[in-house]
Amino acid sequence: MAKAKMKKKSTRIDMTAMCDVAFLLLSFFVMTSTAKLPEPLPVDTPASTVQTKLPDSDLATITVGKGKVFFGVVGKDIRILTLEKIGEKYNIEFSDKEKKQFSLVDGFGVPVGSLKQLLALTGEERNKEGLQPGIPYDSTDNQLREWLLAARLATKELNTAELKIAIKGDAKEEYPTVKKVIDILQKQKVNKFFLVTGLRSEDF
Fold first, then answer.
1. Which of 52, 129, 145, 172 is most buried when burial is the number of CB atoms within 10 A of its CB?
2. Structure confidence at residue 203 as a pLDDT band (50, 70, 90)
């Protein structure tokens, strides 16, 4: 008796839907991502195996490198209120445009008196290496202390939370500079802070 022939089914898979999904995802990531601007004070952080993630909010970062100190705080509203408090402290009035511009600045390193000139520059001009001389932090003109205090008060006022501090130091930075920053924190009774490091293998 003759065997019935089985019809061969097509093995073709329609990939149209998958291609559509891939292009939609690609479009989403391209439109929502932001280009990372160069840092005004690039530092080479020391290596560590610790993988603790920094908080996404209520965070201030103090960057230390080449004898300079830079400061930045997370959150546009916190930045604006911090700037207003600094303006009150130093009797400087900032316009709404300057406040809006400052809310977009991740970190800066200039004396308060030069802040208006810095905000007048574009983001690319602001972040040119060597342009910003750093925030004064010595005993005669300790502006870093005032920025920290203003940011802590702004965070408590807006978010009813304690501001967390992260120190991002260059691996080649001399210890006395970092020690001065830690002393400023301790004088404000901030004894717990993050140290930003680069990731390395445990077998390194």
1. 145
2. very low
